[in-house]
Amino acid sequence: MALAIALAGATASAPTRAHGDDVQVVRAWFDDAHKVDAVAPLLGHAQVDRAKGLLRTEADPWLRAQLIAAGFRVELDRAASDTLQRTAAAFSAATSGARAIPGFACYRTVEEAQDRLDDLASTHPQLLQMVDIGPSWQWQQGSGGYRLRVARATNSAIPGPKPALFVIGSIHAREYTPAELLLRFVEDLVEGYGSDADATWILDHHEVHVLVHANPDGRKRAEAGALWRKNTNSAYCATASQQGIDLNRNFPFAWNSAPGGSSGVPCQDTYRGPSGGSEPETEAIAAYATQLFGDHRGPLLTDPAPDDTPGIFMDIHSYSQLVLWPWGFTEDPAPNGTALAVLGRRLAAFNGYTAQAAIGLYATDGTTDDYTYGELGVASYAFELGTDFFQDCQTFENAIEPTNRAALRYAARVLRAPYVLPAGPDTTQVRAEPDLILAGDAATVVAQLDDARQQTGTPPFSGPVPAVQPIASAAAYLTPPWLPGATAQPLQAADGSFDTPVEAATGAIDSGALAPGRHLVYVQARDSSGADGPVGAAFVEVVAPEDAASIAGTVTDIVSGAPLVARVEIGPWQTTTAADGGYARVLRAGSWPMQVSAPGFETALEPALAVAAGDALTRDVALYRTCAVLDDPVEPAAVSPFTPQAPWQKRAGAGQDGGAAWLQSASGDYANNLDIALASATLDLSGYSSVSLRFDQRCNTEADWDYGIVEVSGNGGGSWSEVFRCDGETQWRTVELPLPQLDGAANARVRFRFTSDTAVRAPGWAVDNVVLSAGGAECRAGQQPPVSIDAFDATPAQIVAGDIATLAWTTRHATACSIANSSDASVHTIAAPDLASGTFAVSPAQDVIYTLSCDGADGPVTAETLVIVTSPPPVAILEFVAMPPTVAQGEGSTLAWTTENATACSIVADDGGAPYVVASEDLAEGSLLVEPEVDVAYTLSCDGEGGPVTALAAVTVMPPLPPAVFDDGFETAP
Ligand SMILES: [Zn+2]
């Protein structure tokens, strides 16, 4: 299947070439590694796989002829060449200017980088200074050019001496990614100072020196599309397009010392210059490094630098995904080679690159890192970023920049002893819980400890894989542990004992005496070999009670109401809700953004939470779920939203879950020369935001040659951009890719693209459980929270007829509510302001069931409450008597009564007199004197429940007596 290139019979000795014309990416196969050394001086850049006998490089017809003449079998890498041609076309179509590289918006130009650093230095004068270290070649010549300017980042308020990191970028001009990576590294540190704990202590106690553009003259040509490598020195080569000195072969240590390590032919890409250090760029960088680091190594090649030598030098290149250390000019190991390998493998764990001594690639001499290590003894590295000179921005943003910035951060943390500290466990994810306390309160610190994170491959010249030991101990410090008087506060293993290489640690910190303000807490761990690792840090803030407030609440799923374990960030502080969704914490008065997030849910943001001292705030937050806009469980029976281009297919039993997975063959390994897509149909994502793709995968391909690639399109497949690339992975893992470029896209597509080259097959890229999810208005519209009635009660639940009961309710998410009366079928409509909670007074005459009905999503819902109405007891006349019942004429009798439950009583005489109305205070018990002339019947009438009732009492009036006749014989006088 190899596509051999027909070549003109060029001769190996002719150094004439039309640089830039017809450049293709080729694979050159060799059967003898010495062939690589023979052509190495001709190669500006190459990927070399010695085990495979394969070299890959950009080559014009002249170089292709050289490779063939040297005994290589040469074939075209058509996909990579097409990309190269397309890039070239984009440049020729654009008008080149000082700003912005056509088609590569993520890479700032020389001028843009300078402006940005000047701005940063003027806004952060205590943290960043720009240091002029010398001229470029063109500047020196008086023909334009630039000053080389180092960004020196450190907190100048804290005096040194401090260990230093010196990083340079894009010394090879066409390497776009290094300069931008370094610029962001500086921005991240300087802008993170004060909020990012590690950035803060790094700048307090270390120095970071960054030369973003080490070859600005050359870079300016590369920004116009030239595959320019060298500086622009025109003194030695007559052909304008081939001029310049390879600055990374010009350094005055072991200059021109290795067979094939550089070229003496001025027009060639690795021309080393007339003498070591001949170029002003080289001179400036070498002098700056020497002044910065001093000399720590003896004169012999075999003299090691002392183990406690501080400082690191790094030279960032692209491409090939490599972490390299000295030597490059000899196969003898560097005298500090073992320690260099340990740090190199630690760094490579961040970016996943191959870690090896530089000679493992091919011989190089006069390089930057051989100089800084060889002359000064300082730990020195070269990175080869990514997979392209003109790397696409997606890959840079998603893969190269974050992983390599993390590697640089690690380097910045071990500067105090880079030959020692990397042997110990790393300390990450340090945080204080809580991260803000009232003065005098307690806090704990938690951290992840990891002795195992390192690149474990064994490429040529990588040295043995360092042993990994269990964590032995860890401690927290309130001052940097290396300072005199630092007090260790021992931490414990979260699982009870330190016995594995990866542990979580926790422990109380002595926070009681801390004054109000922000404090750094440092954590350092030791492994069982006794090696201490680099420190990690977190802030703990102490607030005076008079400046403090509190906040509490619950985070729930807006649809189900279920509690969520969510991250609650308020200003610089964060906390995690408990299993019941609840959180409660102390705040400092101020105005803070509040953000609540949980996996699978849309993040809720309150831009400015106003907090006054003494406040006790409540914030309950209900989160919307994100929606699956595309879901492929990849099971045989399920219809897939993806269209597979053969031989993509669902293979049963190949999934992580034991079911099916997408693969590139029905069985066994994939075929060679594949470039096949598994593409979604067009999706309308209008109204959606926070789009992200999640899938399980095992990318078991030939590393560095066969790839799984995820691409997205916002125009229905008209053009695609890469968002993810994988190769050489034997383990399943879950990949989560934010895809902001698809937010709101009406014609969005996603595809899984697999490419294989001409040789070496492997099991392939298994893809399973693919979900494209998104939030936004369109997603929210489909998940209105259901209406619910949380309470509906009558108080009191039982009344005496005529009394009043109060109906009270609380509801959620109701759009309308009403209360129906079972007795009279009347309906009371609840006013909108009272929907969530309110009261309604009722006074039923009899037992009534009141039904509250509320409308809303998933509604209506109802709730009932019963009001029991009891009757008052009936009116009764217990007694109504006349005393005495018989009177003589002219005498009085007393009517007396006792009643129950009477509301009104009156007494009527049957002699026709006016009724007597009993005063209310006499209703229950009373009396009335009467003096009837004749016999009278009195009727007491009382009203009340069950009334009226009556009772009768009569008074008999005795007539006057006749004259008395005494039987004693005497007669009274008339
Ligand atoms: Zn380079």
Written overview of the protein:
This protein is α+β, with helices and mostly antiparallel strands and 974 residues long. It folds into 7 domains: 24-93, Alpha-Beta Plaits; 110-232 and 279-413, Zn peptidases (Aminopeptidase), CATH 3.40.630.10; 424-454 and 469-543, Immunoglobulin-like (Sandwich); 545-623, Immunoglobulin-like; 629-781, Jelly Rolls (Sandwich); 788-870, Sandwich (Immunoglobulin-like); 876-958, Sandwich (Immunoglobulin-like). Helix content is 15%, strand content 35%. The strands form 13 sheets. The protein has an 8-stranded mixed beta sheet with strand order 5-6-8-7-9-12-10-11, sandwiched between helices. Strands 14-21-20-16-17 form a 5-stranded mixed beta sheet, with helices on one face. Helix 10 (337-351) links the parallel strand 10 (322-325) and strand 11. Helix 6 (176-192) crosses helix 12 (393-413), helix 9 packs parallel to helix 11 (368-376) and helix 10 crosses helix 12 (393-413). Mean pLDDT is 91; it is low at 1-20. Bound molecules: zinc ion. Zinc ion is lined by residues 45, 172, 175, 317. Residues 45, 172, 175, 317 line the site of zinc ion. Its cofactor is Zn(2+). Residues 106-414 form the Peptidase M14 domain. Keywords: Metal-binding, Zinc. One of its GO terms (molecular function) is metallocarboxypeptidase activity. One of its GO terms (biological process) is proteolysis.
